[in-house]
Amino acid sequence: MNAPEPTLTPNRMTYREASKQALREALLSDPRVFLMGEDIGRYGGCYAVTKGLLEEFGEERIRDTPLSESAFVGAGVGTAMAGMRPIVEIMTVNFSLLALDQILNNAVTIPHMSGGQFAIPLVIRMATGGGRRVAAQHSRSLEGWYAHIPGLRVLTPATVEDARFMLKGALADPNPVIIFEHVMLYNMEGDFPSDMKEVDIARAKVRRAGRDVSLITYGGSLFKALQAADALSSEGIDAEVIDLRTLRPLDTKTIIDSVARTRRCIIIDEGWRSGSISAEVGMRIAEEAFFELDAPLRRVCSREAPIPYAAHLEDACLPQAATIVAVARELIRPS
Amino acid sequence: MTKKVHLDHAHLLHLLKAMIRIRHFEAKCVELYQAQKILGFLHLYDGEEAVSVGVMEALTPEDAIIATYREHGQALARGVDPKCLMAEMMGKLNGCCRGRGGSMHFFDRKRRFYGGNAIVGGGLPLALGVALADKMQRRSAVTACFFGEGAVDEGEFHETLNLAKLWRLPILFVCENNLYSMGMAVERAEADIDFVHKASGYRVAGEKVDGMDVVAVESAARNAIDRIRRENDPYFLECRTYRFRAHSMFDAQLYRSKEEVEAWRKKGPILRFQTWLEANRLIKPEEIAAMEKEIDVEIAEAVAYAEAGGLEPISELERFVTMDEVPA
Prior knowledge:
The complex is a heterodimer of chains A (about 325) and B (about 325). Chain A is of the alpha/beta class. Chain A has two domains: about 10-190, Rossmann fold, CATH 3.40.50.970; about 205-330, 3-Layer(aba) Sandwich (Rossmann fold). Chain A contains 13 helices and 14 strands. Chain A has helices spanning about 15-30, 55, 70-80, 95, 100-105, 110-115, 145, 160-170, 220-235, 250-260, 275-290, 310-315, 320-330, and strands spanning about 10-15, 35, 60-65, 85-90, 125-130, 155, 175-180, 190, 205-210, 215, 240-245, 245-250, 265-270, 300. In chain A, the strands form three sheets. Chain A has a seven-stranded mixed sheet with strand order 3-2-4-5-7-6-12, sandwiched between helices. Chain A has a five-stranded mixed sheet with strand order 9-11-10-13-14, with helices on both faces. A two-stranded antiparallel sheet of chain A has the order 1-8. Chain B is α/β, with parallel strands linked by helices. Chain B has a single domain (about 10-305), classed as Rossmann fold, CATH 3.40.50. In chain B, about 50% of the residues are buried. The chains are: A alpha/beta (about 325), B alpha/beta (about 325).
């Protein structure tokens, strides 16, 4: 037996530990909840999120699966249709492509296509994003793709608090929900009020208030935006940071309210720029807050290439705090 | 231990009637399609009736069904109301899916009919889930999973058979082998066309059955279901059958000869069963006439119900994209 991961204080922990506590709470509170996925049991989870759960809950509820993404995601859909509350883990978003048919053609389609006879209360968790030097096939950010699909809820917990409590909201939703956990966040520590029991999964959140520019982002780019905001404050630029939290349905109001205050906006998205969630956010601002803007909308996205292995290339590919700072500076004090 | 089907007079009539109901229902659908009251795709089950009728006889109301896009026969044989099926064909609000699914997507929650699926192989993983949910909730139900032999080409078939065996799930795999996936002949698509052998590669037991013989199918399905319940293990049935008509309504059938179709028609499940019943004096011509009349009344009622049905208001188009609650 591996030693349990140390919990620093009751309300301070890593993102990984928060995700695990959320799963444990779900398993304890509802006998219909079970976990299914690759290496979630004996191995303890590819990112060690599920470590220890097999010992506590047994093989029936912590189900190791073969490398059959389409089959076990489809099995998740079927169990959800027949009375269970499955939480399916797909190791990374890259492998979810092998299950896309089950997600799109079954999970999100059957409720509507059956005239409302079936709901699919299915939660799918997957790791996403780059930064770990594991090359293109393990580094994609396809959250925006999934956010294209009506019927799905797409959650991107970027803080320890959200890692701890978003799952509860996802399980309360009678519809398929995908939770994207950015790989660079698992070791991040954070805290939350000790009396906290839940979070609202419907709203974006102002993570840092500011007057001069809105940095709108989500997931693994949140901490980069916050770093950029700190750097900008030393230059006298007061940036507001919005964490979208839920990419579908988008909380347009929080976005528009922020832009109406700051009148300038940079959207930071680890997805590729073309056809991305950043494009959607930008277009909503253009549709609903065009006359509030004092400057053109700007974006910091991943470069339009497969994420390369070499460190200098990968870093150049992904949004970075320094790039955000440079774009903000240019937007506010054009040379 | 082989279980014999109880071939009393009432049961024989019932089997024949169930097959004729499907045939006549679909003949009416073709008329309505030509009249442009049914649109889109129409994949007829014509020739394959014995498979659904035989298998459904072996199921209880607690058992579950995963169907294909050629599921008119599967739904009718399961006892889904022809009225709401016809209304669905015509895209009406009183259809089983409020006109959102159409010909390829019949669902009936009450009858545990988990849908016609138009992605070949796409239903197989769902069968795993439904069977797993039943098992985890300590229900003794069996899931009958229908698919065509074309689904064997897909990875889902292989992933699903493996997991069904690994997790010992109560699934009856019903392969409706009509020899063509659209225009692709089975021997041109599969290196090994012995599907029972393929299933055995996943240690799933199975057998071939003459899918044109309703009694043989029922008997095989009853034995299979007994075995599944007794041994907590999936089972595989390959039903050899044939589709008499085109794949859908847009198919010039360049891939097979008229002679081949005619030869199979002579082995048709209704023709063969009815001829056998008549030859053995198990049914009187007037009984058949009365039965056909009853069915035609039933279908006329279904058409009237569908014609009278309203349309889903466009304001409801986005309803059920997300559900407000899980239906009880």
